[in-house]
Amino acid sequence: MKSDCLSETKNLLENHNDISANITDCAVVVVPEEIFFTIAILGILENLLVLIAVGKNKNLHCPMYIFICNLAVSDMLGSLYKTLETIFYIIFCKTRIHTCQEAFVRTLDDIVDFMFILSLLGSIFSLSVIAADRYITIFYALQYHNIMTPKRALVILVIIWVFCVGGGLAMVFFSYEIPTVVFFTVLFCFMFIFILCLNIHMFLLARSHAKKIALQPTNSAHQRTNMKGVVTITVLFGVFLCCWVPFLLHMLLVQFCPENPYCICYMSIFPINGTLIMCNAVIDPVIYAFRNPELRRTFKRLFYC
Fold it and tell me: Which domain holds residue 105?
């Protein structure tokens, strides 16, 4: 799943351009690099603002916000990878300052591809632990602070990033191997089912306990806060799927049906899929700010200090 993959896709589209024109009538979509670059910079700045806000507000120094910061870092990596890719392309290829030798370009591709995989895996696992954190908050509210301590949260993050680094290296060196693609596809589906089941279970619990909550006003505010967190993670996951699934589908088509005219037609919109990934990093901080009053107040203090 490489930026190399971007080169491979372009080659496929060029080689089969006449076929796609005659059979599918699909023109290759072109998105200006300036648009990619602008969205990427915006994503970096927004997520950096989230990290600064959480760091400055001591009320936000808890496991849930540690996990949100982890998601922000993952989003930043996704934006940063495209920023670096664009800069490398402009400096070393477009302006001809450096000859675009194949070995040099491949090394740069490996670097930005590694960051891309870190972003993808980091986002998936961040959403998973945020969902699990909300689950523990609702089902084990009284034991939450004993179960999910800041120290355990940090240990979880270390484990996540060790796996992400290993997965990134595996994809860089074995991206053309079908077992590698199948493994990451299965992993993605498993995490999707995990998050979906947690959210469905929490919503069903909320519905079944609605009358009990109404009869317990002292706990209703707490329960509403918890369910608001569930809605937030659901929205975040929905946005993640909308932004990443088109690209992941593209990767599968590149591996399994590169000659099929219908697959070629879908691959012609590859730049749009890349734009969606960039948009994910821009949308997530907006969701935090809209759904979380404490974080929203912190943003206001940062802007009006």
Answer: 3-304
